[in-house]
Amino acid sequence: MPEGPSIIILKEAVQQFKGKKILKVLGNSKTDIQRMSGEKIIDFKSWGKHFLICFKKFTLRIHLMLFGSYRINEQKTTAPRLSLLFKNGELNFYACSIKFIEGDINEVYDWSSDVMNDKWNAKTTREKLQLMPETLVCDALLNQNIFAGVGNIIKNEVLYRTRLHPENKLKDIPSRKINELIKEARTYSFDFLKWKKEFVLRKHWLVHTKKICPGSNIPVIKKYCGQTRRRTFFCPGCQVLYSKE
C-alpha cells in the first residue's frame, strides 16, 4: 500500500494537468465517473494516502489500496479503473478505490493530521494521543486520523529510530519519548520521500524486513502486532517495552 510520501510523488508528477479540461473519461468504475467529462481540474491535493483531484464543485478521492497503481501518458495491459484523457496526455488509475466528495474539501479533511502537510500540528497530535492511553503505539501510528500518511514501513522505522517497542501502551511511554515519536513520524516521512525519489529507499531501512538488528546484532522479531495486525519488525534488545502488563 502506497504511503504518504508516494502520494506526494504522484501529486508532483501530474501538475502538467492542473488547469486542463478533461476531454474524455473511461474506466470500469461503477461510480458516475462521467460527471468529470468536460470539467477543468482546479488543483491536485493529497491527504495522507488519499490522492485528491479537485474540481469547482466537487473532488475525486483516489485511494490506491493494497495493489493500486497509476500511469501517466501511458497504459497498462489491464483495464483501468479510471482514465482521464486530455488534449495532450492522459492519467490512468488501476485497482483503486474511487469516491466523489461534494462541496468544500477543507470542511472534510483535517490538514493538521497529515504528517507531510504544512499545516501539520504536533500539539494537536499529542492531544489526540492523550485521549487513547490504552492504545498500542503500533496501532496509534497507523491511525490515519492522527498520523495521516504513515504506513507500515514508516511505522516500523519510526519505532526503531525512537527505540520504542511496538507493543507499548501509550500511557506507559514517557512524555519525552511521545514527543520524539511525533517528531520522528514527520521527519522520517520526508526522509522516505527523498530516498524514494532517489530510488534508494530500501537501502536506508534499518529494521523493516531485516533479519538482524544493525545496532545490537541480534535477530529481529517479525510479529503481527496490535489490532491492525500489520507486519511488524522490531529489535527486542534496542526497543524498550516500558510495561509488561
UniProtKB/TrEMBL annotation:
It catalyses: Hydrolysis of DNA containing ring-opened 7-methylguanine residues, releasing 2,6-diamino-4-hydroxy-5-(N-methyl)formamidopyrimidine. It comes from the Bacteria. Residues 2-101 form the Formamidopyrimidine-DNA glycosylase catalytic domain. One of its GO terms (biological process) is base-excision repair. It comes from Ginsengibacter hankyongi. Belongs to the FPG family. GO terms for molecular function: damaged DNA binding; DNA-(apurinic or apyrimidinic site) endonuclease activity; lyase activity; oxidized purine nucleobase lesion DNA N-glycosylase activity; zinc ion binding. Gene3D superfamilies: 1.10.8.50, MutM-like, N-terminal. This is Endonuclease.
